Structure formats: structure tokens, C-alpha cells
Description:
Structural class: alpha/beta
InterPro entries: Glycerophosphate_synth, Glyco_trans_2-like, Nucleotide-diphossugar_trans, TagF_C, TagF_N, Teichoic_Acid_Biosynth
Membrane topology: Peripheral membrane protein
Subcellular location: Cell membrane
Radius of gyration: 30 Å
Distance between the termini: 48 Å
Helix content: 25-40%
Number of strands: 22
Mean pLDDT: 91
Shape: globular
Number of helices: 26
Strand content: 15-25%
Low-confidence stretches: 596-606
Main location: membrane
Pfam families: Glycos_transf_2 (PF00535), Glyphos_transf (PF04464)
Amino acid sequence: MTLISFVVPAFKVQGYLRECLDSILDQPFDDLEVIGIDDASPDGSGEILDEYAARDPRVHPVRLVENVGLGPARNIGLDRAVGEYVWFVDGDDWLVAGCLPHVAARLRATRPDVLVVDHVRAHWNNAGTRSAMRDVFPEPPGEATFGLRDRPETLRLLHTAWNRLVRREFLVEQGLRFEPGWYEDVSFSYPALMAAERIGVLDRVCLNYRQRRTGAITRTRGDRHFEVFAQWHRVFRLMDRWGPAVAELRPAVFERMIWHYLTVLGNGERIAAGLRPPFFAQIHADYVRFLPPEGYPVPPGLEGVKHRLVAAGRWRTFSALRAAHQVEEQARHTARRVRRRVLPVARRTARGARDAALREYYRAELHRPLDPTLAVYAAYWYRGYSCNPAAIYTAARRLVPQVRGVWIVRRDRVAVLPPGVEYVVAGTRDYYRVLARARWLVNNVNFPDFVRKRPGSVHVQTHHGTPVKVMGLDQQRYPVGAVGMDFTKLLHRVDRWDYSVSANSFSTQMWERAYPADYTTLEVGYPRNDRLALATAEECRQVRAALGIGPDEYVVLYAPTHREHLPGWQPPFDPDRMRDVLGPSGRLLMRSHYFHDRERQLRGASDGAVLDVSTYDRVEDLYLVADVLVTDYSSAMFDYAVLDRPIVVYAPDWEAYRVARGVYFDLLAEPPGAVAVDFPGLLDVFRGGAVRGAEAEQARQRFRARFCALDDGHAAERVVRRVFLNEPA
């Protein structure tokens, strides 16, 4: 028999589901199964479950045709489980690495009905908040199992399904199921503890409980929070049915009920002001209805005052007490904020004064009406005209000629703009004016922090590559590659986005996880790849001729990415030895990352057969002339794959890179072609023909199916029609 069945419901968790599944399947423990329930999720959650099932027989996906909700979805997983124990893990949470051997050892040693494990709340800012385990059990409870009557304080542990493993036969014998509706854990977890003869507690953090910035029920306002009452009513009906067997537990359960009600009421992100009085009235009604004859342990201090006000039904006094507490907290917050802002005022330089004057001009322009015909474009921190914004600009000129497109560029990059492209120079008066008054703002990175999101303006984030390395909030776990990043300010910038352009479902999932906010995703392909998808053989010949490359030359483009954690480092690469392997018809093009535009020259790129193309602005031209791309962890591989030409992954520092910088998938296990992990191996790939071998061809086709399916040459048009013309997706 399988020891543990994981039941993982999935609904709108595509950005987190991979991390959840990996955290289970990558454990040093195999005696498990994963039953993934796609609860008719409108995103890519179901496809992710199918993908994992295709490569791991322990994963069993279930696709529901209509949404049933978290509780019923868990019941469906329970009915299909074969494990001795069931662990209900939500699709946006994840296990702690290496925890399962300890969990399994405790299960096998003590055979509990319920084993409660510890957890931490994992916040979006990478902070972790410990659970109440140490407060409930100041002394570790040890390995011995117990009944709830012996340790009633166990009820004070968080009443969720995901922080405990439950013996499957025990659930069947007791007939315990999840009820529909919100707060479904209540009517499952408390009865399970009351019915269990053997409860175990593992004093080890085993699960990360994700505190989502957006999309969580606990951050959703509405009247559905009133469903908490029905769940607690079920608990007390069950206790009435069980009678004397659980009578002595009634005071402790009652105290937990009132605590839970007050927790929900006190959360301003759940109960709107207009719903607070009726919610409080229902708390009072339940207090009167379920109060044990012998009373219950009223908590001390302020919490006890709240309980007494509930007992008396005194809403106005309760509300006034809460308001006074909020005023006190706000005063403390204001004092801290003032202390932080006093010091920088005295540090103005002459340039700072000029910048301050321009910012004042910007703020004044914000009071003028938006220009309904103005669209502002930028790319790569104002480095020039390129990438997805350039493709959208071109499509907009054709489809919405009444819209005036203006580019923002650095002064030293003005010369690279195509003829006829209107522009402003960053930092000038015109720059601040167009930023303040543009109806549309399109960028492949973020605009500066001072830029405000005006009502009626539309911000489009196009991104600039399908992510291999971790991005956004995920970089908090890899601080070596996130030096100097301010994640609070990052989220302020992300909150300005109205649209996020995505090249494929994988990117959509990772952007939702890395940049949690309320933008609309446009999963349409990458506009910059339209040219690659529509390129003809004649265009490729013309570009080759313009670059001085003959039609019969064999061209290899080498484009390594930047290492944030190793500034200036370049992978070991000998152009002369590579040129020798390519032969007399070979031409090697070498291109550094755009972060190195102040230090463009690559080592060894010196003669006609080896050409440094780092300063060449139109990277799409280089893709069109290349017969083979050699890269490491660059998003260039996703773009070049649109051409369906050979790609070689040269990853000499893969293990160090994935540990220091973090990656979203195993590039060596799912490559777009042949792989080399050292320079001699790279030479062998070309020398032995593996670059075009059957294995490399199959890998590329799998890669293209996963990442390039939407790149059909019309991505920019789809963005323009949705963003500028407001046509349905």
C-alpha cells in the first residue's frame, strides 16, 4: 500500500502549481502518489497536471468539467486515494525540502489517526511567520500519540486541512468529508481531532503556507464570509450527535468558534464596513445559541473584553473600541514614516534641484487632460528602438494611424532610431510631459518609480523574454542575484500594469507568480517574433548580404546571458578553436548581453571569420542569418526556436547558476537541442554532428510545441486590437 496520497486541488493557481508539485515529487521519498484535481480551472492548471503526469507515473490528474469548489474537489481526490494516509495540500503552497522522510518515519512508528505538522506563513516579501506550534506546545509534545481530551490545547493549532495527515480508513469509518462553501476546513478539521483516538504532533516545519498578494479568499471582500457560520453550525450539530463522548470538549471548541468569528470580523480585507453590524449580530446569536451551560475559558485582556461585548450584543461599543485601536496603530505608523523621511531632505545637490524642478513640472502636467492620441514607447531602460514595444509600435501605425507614437531614448541612443520615429530624450522637459499625459504607455521593463498611474491611462508591460531564471518576487529567495532590488517598490511599479503580454502559457504562469497584481494577461505570443515567424528565404538572403555574409557560409551565433551574481564574467569560450571546428565556410558571430553595452567587446572576436555583433541593434537580423544558435540561459533560445533551426545549450556553470540565480525549469532535462557542459563538449557537439542529430531535433520540436505555439506572426496585431481598439481577445 502507498503510504501517503497527496490530494492537490487546483483552481487559478497556475503560477504556483509547479512549485507545489516539485516540492512533493522531488522529496527523497518515493512511497507516495499525487492526485491533482483540476477544478475546471480557467487557467493552465489542468495542463500543468497533465504535463507532470506524462513524465511521472505517481501523478494522477482528474479534470472536472465544472467548478465544484475546494471542499468537494478534495472529496473527489479522497475517493481516488489509495494511500494509508491522505495529505490535502493546496496548489499554491509547497512542502519544505527533505521533510517527507521525517513525516513517514513518524507515521510508521506511531500509526496515528491524525498527524499534525508545523508550518510557516510564507509572505510575498519573503518573510516567514512562524505558526502557533510553540505557543500551543511550549514543550515539544514528543512522539507519543494522545487523545484530544488529554491535550485539548491542540484545538488552538490552525484548523486547516493542509497542516495534517489523516489516516484514510479513519476518515472512511467516521464518514468525515469536506462540506461545500468557504471555510470548509472548519467542519472537517475539528471533528477529525475530536474523533481521533491517536493524535500525533510533529514539531518540524513541513509546509510553506503562501500568503498571496492577490487572489486569496482571505483577501477577498464580500458576503461569502458569512459562510463561516454554517461551517461552525455543522461542527456543533455533529457534537450534539456524538453526545457524551465529546461533551467535555464543548467549552474549548466554543472558545475556538468565537475566536475564529472575531478573526474574520477583524480583517478589513474580508468584511466591508456595511456588513460588519450584521456579521457581529450573527456572532452574538451563535454565542447565545451554543454557549455551554458550564461556561468556557474566556481569554484575558483585550480579547476577553471583545468576548464580553459579543455576549452582551454591544456592537457600538465593540466598534468604538476597534476604531480607537486603529487610530493608535495609525499614529505609530505615521511617526515611523516621518522619521524615515526627515533625513534625505537636506541632501540636495545642484543636479538634484534641477531634477526636483522637472518633477514639479511633471506633477503639474498630471493635472492636465490625458492626450487621447498619444502613446509612449520605451525598451530596455531607454536604450533605443527594439523588442516587443517596437513591434507593437509598427502594428499600431498600421492599424490605428490616428494614434501618435513617441519613443523615449537616452541621448546617446538617438542616432540608432529608424528614420521618421518621433522621440523625446530621457530626463528632458518633453520626457516628463509625455509621461504625464500619454493615454498609452508601452514598455518591456518598468517605467521609473515616480511615474503615476493616471485614471484612464493604459500601461502595457510586454516583458522581454520567456524566463529561464527566476524573476520578480521569486528573486527574494536568491539574494545573490537580487542585490540592490527593492521589492516593495517593484510591486508599486507592477500595480501600474493594465496588461501583461505573455509569449506562452509557461510565461503566464511564471509572471503571475513573480509579479502578483490585478493586471490582465494577453497570452498572444511575442510581438518581436512576428518577423521571425513570417521571414522568407529572400529576406534572410538580403540580411546576410547586408552583413557581408555569403549565402554558403555556415553561421553560428554565440549569445551568452548576463550573470547578475558574477558581473563581468564570461563563460569559457575560445573563438579560434570554435572557428577551426566550423571549417573554412564557418562564420562565428558573438554577441554580449545588453547589460554590457559599456563594455561590448568580447574576448577573441577579432577577425573576419569571427565577428563581434554586440553593438548591432536589431538582434532579429542576427537570428535570420544564423544557421545555429549557441546560448546558455538566455531568452534568445525561445525566440530563435521560432525559426525551427538548431540550438545548442552551452551551460558550463549550470549547477552554480541554478543555485545562485535560481531557475524555473531544468534546462538540461528539457533543452531545445544538444547540450554541452564544458567547452570541449561544445566542440564535440559540432565536430560529431550532434547539433543536427535525431535527439536534438526531437528535443527542439518538444521545446517549440511548449514555448512557440503562439508565435504565428500576428502577436503584435493581437495586442494592438485588444489594447488600442478594445476588441475582445
